[in-house]
Amino acid sequence: MRTLRFLLQKEFRQIFRDPSIIRIIFMMPSIQLLILPWAADYEVKNIQLSVVDHDHSQYSRQLVNKVTASGYFRLQDYSGSFTNALQQVEHDEADLVLEIPADFEKKLIKENESTLFMAINAINGVKANLGGAYLRSIVQDFNREVRLKWVQLPRFNPELQVAVTASNWFNPSMNYKYFMVPGILVVLVTMVGSFLASLNIVREKEIGTIEQINVTPVKKYHFILGKLIPFWILGLLILTIGLTISWVAYGIMPAGSLLVIYSFAAVYLLAVLGLGLLLSTYTSNQQQAMLLSFFLMMVFILLSGLYTSIDSMPNWAKIITRFNPVTYFIDVMRMVVLKGSGLKDISSHIFTMLGFAVVLNTWAVIHYKKRS
């Protein structure tokens, strides 16, 4: 223990001696947590709409007004030429074209039905799908409103009517920040922990101090623990700062216990830091460690369920997510923050993360070789 205490003193002095590391540890997560949730929005707004109205009737104007009043669309052009509207799509001036036929109102009144045509710019697949879905939903609402005006109900209505009342559990206001902020916080804790841990041993190699440590009787597990514990404490501190920012900036208070979050985070950081230390034993300079960490972080983030649902991924990707520690922590954070889950609910996640921690740290200890 005395040897470990001296190693920890050395590591903390080395960390706080470098002001750039302090900025990375504390300022970077804080700034990113204040900015990223505003940009990481699942809703698509400001869709540029071009309307081609061949009818110029009362109903066609009502439909256009309803579309533009939704808040999702911006009326870019209102004309009677589909060719001009399509040119705007080709020049990226419009995302969607709505063409209203000349007999729109006539067919709607006489034949009780009419057709509309939509042309969607599908270069951005997400924007195209959501924009088309928004427009179809608005048209359906318009259709129901028109039919309700025409219906003359008798005193006794023989038709059955079913009323559907929706209740949004866990996120009643449907605020996407409640869903995204916990996940972004996990990514920031992971980036700081794994990134700095992977650079730590490599930095010792580059400045030559690793050779001095190798000729001492310090055991390998003492050396690895001396590198792991300081960043484990800093990781928990970053988590605390992130939870504080979430509460102050976004009003997010976990529905569950903070003890559950910190309990899982303590185990999770052991696994992530073990991965960082393992990478540092396989690299000889900081450039290699940075590139390898960047590669793994991209895979971890994209296959973590942060931005895309894991259920929508192909089977081979779902298998990879089982070996992604970020996936488990994001799931736990959302369960505790939104649902109020307890230790019993996340027990399988904890045991899985313990397995990651044991395997990665044992691997790092075994692979680290002391050379004279």
UniProtKB/TrEMBL annotation:
The chain crosses the membrane at residues 21-40, 178-202, 229-253, 259-279, 291-310, 346-366. One of its GO terms (molecular function) is ABC-type transporter activity. Keywords: Cell membrane, Membrane, Transmembrane, Transmembrane helix, Transport. InterPro entries: ABC-2_transporter_component, ABC2_TM, ABC2_TM_bact-type. It is a multi-pass membrane protein. Coiled coil: none annotated. Its main location: membrane. It is found in: Cell membrane. Belongs to the ABC-2 integral membrane protein family. This is ABC transporter permease. It comes from Niastella vici.
